[in-house]
Amino acid sequence: MTDWRRSRAWIDLNMDNLRKNMKFFHRIIPDGCLLMPAVKANAYGHGVLPVVEALREEGISHFCVASVSEGIELRNHGVQGEILILGYTAAEIFTELEHYDLTQTVVDASYAEILARSGRKLKVHVGVDTGMHRLGEDWNHTGGIAGVWEYGNLSVTGVFSHLCASDGISEKETAFTREQIRRFDEIVRKLRQRGISGFQTHLQGSYGILNYPECNYSCVRPGIALYGVLSKEEDLTRIPFMAKPVLSLKTRVELVKELNAGEQAGYGLAFTAGKQSRIAVLSIGYADGIPRELSGKGYVLIHGEIAPIVGRICMDQMFVDITDLKCAEYVKMHDEAVLIGNSGEQTITAEKFASFTETISNEVLSRLGGRLERCCI
Ligand SMILES: *Cc1c(COP(=O)(O)O)cnc(C)c1O
After folding, report:
1. By C-alpha distance, which of 184, 358, 247 is closest to 17?
2. Catalytic residue selected from 23, 257, 267, 275
3. Is 44 annotated as catalytic?
4. Ligand 1 site, residue 125, Cβ cutoff 6 A
5. Is the CB of 203 under 6 A from ligand 1?
6. What is the CA(163)–ligand 1 centre distance, in A?
7. 127 lines ligand 1 (CB under 6 A)
8. What is the pLDDT of residues 8-35, one digit of tens each?
9. What's the CA gap between 327 and 209, in Å, rounded?
10. Residues with Cβ within 8 Å of residue 184, at least 6 apart in sequence
11. Intra-chain end-to-end CA distance of the chain, in Å
12. Residue 226 Cα: closest atom of ligand 1
């Protein structure tokens, strides 16, 4: 099984799970609703090319990305459907929008004018701000929103908004989300009343789909959940979620060190052995996306056992304490260590890995570095 790509630190991608996750989403979204997965940030660190290739084989042709360069990468790999850029694009590169047939988000009414003044024939989706106050024209500025259709060179193929509390279960968050849905429905209705039609509508990311399945728009934009992961560990217990993780993060034992009581390991002498100890050096570090904050926190799996992380995370290495592991005697160079995924009977989920540094899985996954090899299994 070991190939050169699995020799230092790598990501295994379970493509079968990705395909199953897509089917899970198809089951829970309304008939005819289009899946437009978010594959920004290198498909949340998974590796955009293998992910997109697998999704295309399953019949997905439209994608959401964050930037023009991400859109170009998809076009260069043969994606022919709509590619929506969810963020702002500088006027200097509107040429790329046109040349690669990328769909630009209209981040507000004045930006529509800038897009129009370029004179280029551009496809756009109009962003509507229903309360998040990030991107989009105010939901109650009907004139400003409807005005985008007046520009002859802009072809409006969609209208969308974004939910900012759809993961929450408090009364405040659910009431706010319902209000966002109501505002979005209202602007869509007002546009139709003005005789404007023929545009896609979309509002839900992963949590919007899972927690508000009654919504019925023409597209959805799942990101994190399509990868079989939720943002927080506790969500796994309260949301019926049948998707399975796609990604495992693995590395190797580079060397095993014997430390006498009182000896230290790593930068800043951050770890001191309290007794005769055995420390495994792993060949992965913060340049691979392992948070430096993980220094002295959390654990990895070696031969199905829990090995606590000790010392500072280095750029290319990290340390774990294997002293008390049953396998301590035989752990050796090149043995596998799992940071996210299964080993024997043990599992570290991406949600758990993120909880070690009190963040969400979206962040730790999307920061996994370009130096990691991506291996499809
Ligand atoms: C990233 C993003 C998504 C996907 O969000 P998930 O929570 O990962 O499903 C959807 N819509 C917009 C506008 C986004 O920026």
Report:
1. 247
2. 267
3. no
4. no
5. no
6. 9
7. no
8. 999 999 999 999 999 999 999 999 999 9
9. 44
10. 128, 130, 139, 161, 201, 203
11. 11
12. 9
